[in-house]
Amino acid sequence: MSCLNCSNSIVPGCKNNGSCKTGNCGKMPVFDWLSNIDFPENHKPFNVVEVRFKNGRKEYFKNEKKLKIHMGGEVIVQRNQGYDLGVVSLTGELVKLQLKRKKIKINSKEILIISRNATNKDIEKWNHAKERESYSMKRSRELARQLNLKMKIGDVEFQADNSRAIFYYTSDQRVDFRELIKLIADELKIRVEMKQIGSRQEAQRMGGIGSCGRELCCSTWLNDFRIVSTSAARYQQLSLNPQKLAGQCGKLKCCLNFELDNYVEALKSFPKSKLKLITKKGKAFIQKMDIFKRKIWVSYMRETHILFELDIEEVNKIIDLNKKDQIPESLEIFVNKKEDVKNFDYDNVVGQESITRFDKKKIKNN
Q: Which residues pair with 311 in a beta bridge?
């Protein structure tokens, strides 16, 4: 058996046979960059493992039984009621860093125990439970509509032992869903748990294609949601158009934060946009700026339609002169003269520009 992502002929963990060495199999992959590092002889491996469930939901469990666990392998984990099946997404020392980042203590009661490795029967039962999810979601939406509940059920997740189901919903207000739980539990013969999520979490679970043409970041690799404000768009000189700045969740796109630090750092060398430049020809103000080209477009207060393209160094010279109570003649002095580029004329040699070149019928040779 060979892995499609690895050059190795036999890889433990590809599909149902261990762990993939690339870590790219499945949703929300994690690359273990410490896997090839040899630790000291007295070093004991970290016994907490990261396990991934449906749609990238991750939890942490202790390997107290010292089972042979690999990335990508299915394991049976302990629950407060029953058991569940998940896929191992991370092992080793990186789990310790993840716990520290998420502020979870190792001795916390939230960290339960891994019972055993999953067998074929466990996987068959898990697949049977997943088959019930689509019908359960449709039926729960019908019942919520009959009860006139202002809520949207976006996803359903069944536990591997087929004893409990979690219904994820979104709502703008408080919803009394006690009657809905009774109806679903009586019809499906299962314990029901309702969990409210935000619009970003709903887009993460549903997935889709963004305006960039790629799959949504939240459904592929982004697992923590930070606050995105309109100031991020202002720093990047973007127009505050909600149709372009909003993602499929209806909120501001998470990618606005990706390059925000670079823009904030670059803007430190730029003057303030409200600053006025004083010349003998008149006062001027900044209309727009290009951060990465380090260009600023300035115009006079009386002639706003005429723009002068200046380098940031030239603008800073004018500001320094104004601070010394020195007034330059005009902005034209600081404009860099561009060299004229010769434009070569196009010669229509073959006749591509003729509109009627296809009208003439070709003479067939006998």
A: 295
pLDDT digits 0-9 by tens, 130-147? 999 999 999 999 999 999
Q: What integer pLDDT is reported at residue 156 of this predicted model?
A: 93
Residue 220's closest CA among 64, 51, 24, 33? 24
d(CA 334, CA 217): 45
Q: What is the DSSP string of 142-157?
A: HHHHHTT---EEEEEE
Which residue shows structure tokens 């408080």? 174
Query: For 180-210, how does the pLDDT look when each residue is reduced to its tens digit (9 = 90+)?
Result: 999 999 998 999 999 999 888 888 888 889 9
State mean pLDDT over 11-28: 48
Domains, in order of start, for the chain:
1-118 (no CATH), 124-197 (3.30.300), 203-265 (no CATH), 276-334 (no CATH)
Nearest alpha-carbon partner for 164 in 48, 53, 65, 58: 53
Name the E strands within the chain: 48-52, 58-62, 74-78, 83-90, 112-117, 152-158, 164-170, 191-196, 276-279, 282-290, 295-300, 308-311
Q: What is the pLDDT of residue 97?
A: 87
Handedness of CA 204, 167, 73, 127 (dihedral sign): negative
Task: Please say whether the beta carbons of 86 and 74 come within 8 A.
Answer: yes
How many Å apart are CA 273 and CA 285, to the nearest integer? Answer: 8
Residue-wise pLDDT for 237-273, tens only, equals: 888 888 889 998 889 999 999 989 999 998 888 888 8
At which residue do the structure tokens 């909120």 appear? Answer: 251
Residue carrying structure tokens 């690339």: 22
C-alpha–C-alpha distance, residues 34 and 161, integer Å? 34
* Nearest CA among 190, 171, 174 for reference residue 182: 190
Average the pLDDT over each of 240-254, 289-303, 309-323, 347-361 and give the range with the smallest value.
Answer: 347-361
- In this prediction, residue 76 carries a pLDDT of 93
Tally of CB atoms within 10 A around 324: 7
